[in-house]
Automatic annotation (TrEMBL):
Transmembrane portions of the chain: 14-32, 44-65, 72-91, 148-166, 172-188, 193-215, 292-312, 324-342, 354-376
Protein name listed in UniProt: Cell division protein FtsW
Coiled-coil ranges (or none): none
Localization annotation: Membrane
GO biological process entries: cell division
């Protein structure tokens, strides 16, 4: 059946508890940041509460999906999500406004802003999981040619839409796509030559960039960085040399100051006095660390750790490889998203427009993650009680 009878008792209780705690933290600190009056009369806390109601509804609905039916619908979801990205590029500004140089959202009356790249992440994870699972079921002993063909198919469904997202511009989201795919490919035994090339090429590129920065920094500053988009140049320069580029590093420096002045227990709710742009969105962790202190920040990180661990556990116990790969892709994607967001707030990584999952104000990121967790709960029904071994399909 396409839809199974909803059995609330079978919902994963640990995931629900974690989500409820993150929901409370998100709304509380968004309320606190808006109490300073910097956002005028807008009630972002109330809007986030509504977003969470919608998000939990989406989670329950996608929990109803059967994994076999999801596999059948994978291509349909993928095509619709790609068409939405194409439509975004040609849509007039009345529908897709250009905000701070970025054209990433549809503005829908009475609904708000919808970011197609967030929902493409769902369809990409699902379609790549299907491609890998189909090949694994078809051929138990794959050849190098079959592995290369699989990689070719994955690149074909990934690269063109990712270029559309990159042009929005949204480099951070493209990065999440790539890590999700890497996680899923890591679950199967690819040909050793293919794996070696896949590891050595990125390592070589990173090594070359690191050597140039250490021994020939003028090449990085004069030849490499100028080829990037203006906002990317500002973020990288501000991160590499914040003392001499105060304007480019303004947001990062302010967030580091907010985190640093929070101390162990923080300044208390509504006690934050360090101005940080976008403090209720991508820099929500600065507000958490400033007002809740190190202990609250550490508690949030612990909740994320428990959530990711639970997703991996569910994936490892599934008797459907398709579900296992989805869980692996989501887990690494969330991990990179969390590390990047908190890293940029702490000044350790360049600033990127990446939301902190379940905490940042906004609908698209929350909705897409809730949908994925709904799928994870559907995967939970295929337990086979294995631990990171090769899953077997039930008969």
């Amino acid at each position: 059946m396409f839809v199974k009878k909803l059995r609330l008792a079978e919902l994963d209780k640990l995931i629900l508890i974690i989500l409820c705690l993150l929901c409370g933290i998100s709304i509380l600190f968004i309320f606190s940041t808006q109490s300073g009056g910097q956002f005028g009369a807008q009630n972002f806390a109330l809007k986030q509460s509504i977003n969470y109601v919608i998000g939990f509804t989406l989670l329950l609905l996608f929990r109803l999906l059967d994994l076999n039916q999801l596999r059948l619908l994978a291509w349909s979801f993928y095509i619709v999500s790609v068409l939405s990205l194409l439509l975004l590029t040609i849509a007039p500004e009345s529908i897709a406004p250009n905000i701070l140089g970025a054209k990433r959202w549809f503005s829908i009356p009475f609904v708000g802003s919808i970011q197609p790249s967030e929902f493409f992440r769902i369809s990409l994870i699902v379609i790549v999981a299907k491609l890998i699972a189909d090949l694994k079921e078809k051929s138990l002993h794959r050849t190098m040619q079959e592995d290369l063909l699989l990689l070719g198919k994955i690149l074909l469904v990934t690269i063109p839409p990712s270029l559309l997202v990159y042009q929005q511009p949204d480099t951070g989201m493209v990065m999440l796509y790539m890590f999700a795919i890497v996680a899923m490919l890591g679950m199967i035994k690819l040909n050793k030559i293919v794996v070696t090339i896949g590891i050595l090429v990125p390592l070589l590129a990173i090594s070359i960039i690191a050597c140039l920065f250490l021994f020939k920094p003028e090449i990085i500053y004069d030849d490499v960085i100028p080829k990037l988009k203006p906002h990317q140049q500002d973020r990288i320069i501000g991160w590499l040399d914040p003392s001499d580029n105060s304007n480019q590093a303004f947001q990062s420096r302010r967030s580091v100051l907010a985190v640093g002045t929070g101390g162990l227990i923080g300044k208390g709710i509504e006690g934050g006095n360090v101005y940080v742009p976008e403090k209720h969105t991508d820099f929500i962790f600065a507000s958490i660390a400033e007002e809740g202190g190190f202990l609250t920040g550490a508690a949030v990180i612990l909740l994320f750790f428990l959530l990711i661990t639970r997703i991996l556990e569910i994936g490892s116990k599934s008797n459907d490889p398709f579900g296992t790969y989805i869980c692996a892709g989501l887990a690494l994607s969330l991990t990179i998203q969390i590390v990047q967001n908190i890293g940029m707030v702490e000044g350790m990584l360049p600033v990127k427009g990446i939301a902190l999952p379940f905490l940042t104000y906004g609908g698209s990121s929350l909705f897409s993650n809730m949908i994925l967790l709904g799928i994870v709960m559907s995967v939970r029904n295929t337990y086979a009680h294995q631990f990171f071994g090769e899953p077997k399909r039930s008969t």
